[in-house]
């Protein structure tokens, strides 16, 4: 699939601002409803978590060492143009996701008075701002830094009710953890494949994401109505949307995966398995990823997305017809996956989990 070449900062900004089915989104929500969130049923676990944020064990982590720039200068000339383009796309989309969290958590923090929600959002915005800044520095090495003020102003915002924010951000924090730790472990085993120093930062980094996910897990578990009845249908929907989006997007970056010694299918299977295992802390229904129809269905969605893209590149009436056909195939494929019987498990008494992957 076509990948921008990232020749100028405008290319990076356009990639960050793009609103496609696959690009990371910015969110806004109902702040008054956020203000009414009650975490008191899990007070002890909540307070222990806020203590961890307060302790801020990563306060010194997101700083560049002099060796960082040297390593970039040594390794970048060894990249193929395709790897460079895919890696820049990875940095921009990671930056956009991190900054999306930063903007949302910061807006909630500014618009609520509930002290529990306000404190949590302040800490998470602090972490995401560091993550976004650190990624942006790596883009600046290539003259591709994204103006985050402009991005905040220009990007389209999607409105989600608080409960959808909780399902979506819980999953994106946990899948973010799973993605970063899987890359970190792979490059720990194969340091010769570490083609950029930023991957060395991923271990402590992903612990922030894990904790952000824990925060949403506590909010959801403190409000059991969000985890039962018709809401379980939404929970299944969000799991499938998050997994399918990642699956299609990662297959657009074959060189990036190959450089790290990954096959995108195997990498995504591992990431989905980790995320599914973690999400049993909060979701009473999880997708049956071990069913043969599950990954076969994701492959069907991938083919539909690739067909749609070919139609777009072709253009004209035939191109548009092809796009429409593949879009229908995509919707049908998604629906087939959605109706696969999920796994149902009772929720564990203890909500918090350790990042042990
Ligand atoms: Fe983050
Ligand atoms: Fe996060």
TrEMBL record:
Q: List the catalysed reactions.
A: Mg-protoporphyrin IX 13-monomethyl ester + 3 NADPH + 3 O2 + 2 H(+) = 3,8-divinyl protochlorophyllide a + 3 NADP(+) + 5 H2O
Record keywords: Bacteriochlorophyll biosynthesis, Chlorophyll biosynthesis, Iron, Metal-binding, NADP, Oxidoreductase, Photosynthesis
What EC number(s) does the entry state? 1.14.13.81
**What is an example of a GO molecular function annotated in this UniProt entry?**
magnesium-protoporphyrin IX monomethyl ester (oxidative) cyclase activity
Give every Rubrerythrin diiron-binding domain span: 90-218
**Record keywords: Metal-binding included?**
yes
The cofactor named in the record is: Fe cation
Named in its record, the pathway it takes part in is: Porphyrin-containing compound metabolism; chlorophyll biosynthesis; Porphyrin-containing compound metabolism; bacteriochlorophyll biosynthesis (light-independent)
Q: Name one Pfam family in it.
A: Rubrerythrin
- What's the family? Belongs to the AcsF family.
Alphabetized HAMAP family for the sequence: AcsF
Matching NCBIfam families: AcsF (TIGR02029), PRK13654.1 (NF010172)
Q: What does this protein do?
A: Catalyzes the formation of the isocyclic ring in chlorophyll biosynthesis. Mediates the cyclase reaction, which results in the formation of divinylprotochlorophyllide (Pchlide) characteristic of all chlorophylls from magnesium-protoporphyrin IX 13-monomethyl ester (MgPMME).
Q: What is the recorded name of this protein?
A: Aerobic magnesium-protoporphyrin IX monomethyl ester [oxidative] cyclase
């Amino acid at each position: 699939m076509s990948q921008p070449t990232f020749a100028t900062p405008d290319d990076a900004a356009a990639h960050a601002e793009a609103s496609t089915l696959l690009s990371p989104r910015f969110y806004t929500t109902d702040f008054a409803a956020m203000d009414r969130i009650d975490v008191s049923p899990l007070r002890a676990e909540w307070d222990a978590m806020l203590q961890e944020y307060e302790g801020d064990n990563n306060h010194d982590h997101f700083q560049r060492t002099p060796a960082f720039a040297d390593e970039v200068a040594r390794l970048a000339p060894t990249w193929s143009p395709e790897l460079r383009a895919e890696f820049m796309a990875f940095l921009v989309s990671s930056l956009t996701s991190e900054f999306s969290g930063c903007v949302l958590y910061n807006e909630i923090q500014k618009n609520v008075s509930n002290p529990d929600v306000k404190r949590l959002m302040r800490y998470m915005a602090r972490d995401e701002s560091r993550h976004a800044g650190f990624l942006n520095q790596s883009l600046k090495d290539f003259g591709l830094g994204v103006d985050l003020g402009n991005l905040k102003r220009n990007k389209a915002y999607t409105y989600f009710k608080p409960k959808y924010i909780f399902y979506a951000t819980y999953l994106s924090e946990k899948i973010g953890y799973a993605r970063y730790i899987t890359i970190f472990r792979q490059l720990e085993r194969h340091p010769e494949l570490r083609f950029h120093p930023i991957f060395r930062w991923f271990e402590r980094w992903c612990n922030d994401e894990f904790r952000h996910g824990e925060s949403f897990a506590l909010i959801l578990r403190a409000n059991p109505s969000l985890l039962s009845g018709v809401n379980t249908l939404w929970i299944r929907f969000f799991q499938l949307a998050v997994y399918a989006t990642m699956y299609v997007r990662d297959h657009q970056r074959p060189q990036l995966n190959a450089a790290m010694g990954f096959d995108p299918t195997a990498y995504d299977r591992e990431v989905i398995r980790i995320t599914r295992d973690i999400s049993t802390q909060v979701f009473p229904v999880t997708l049956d990823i071990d069913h043969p129809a599950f990954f076969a269905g994701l492959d069907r969605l991938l083919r539909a997305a690739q067909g749609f893209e070919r139609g777009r590149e072709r253009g004209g009436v035939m191109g548009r017809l092809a796009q429409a056909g593949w879009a229908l195939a995509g919707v049908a494929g998604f629906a087939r996956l959605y109706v696969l019987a999920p796994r149902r498990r009772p929720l564990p008494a203890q909500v918090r989990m350790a990042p042990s992957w």
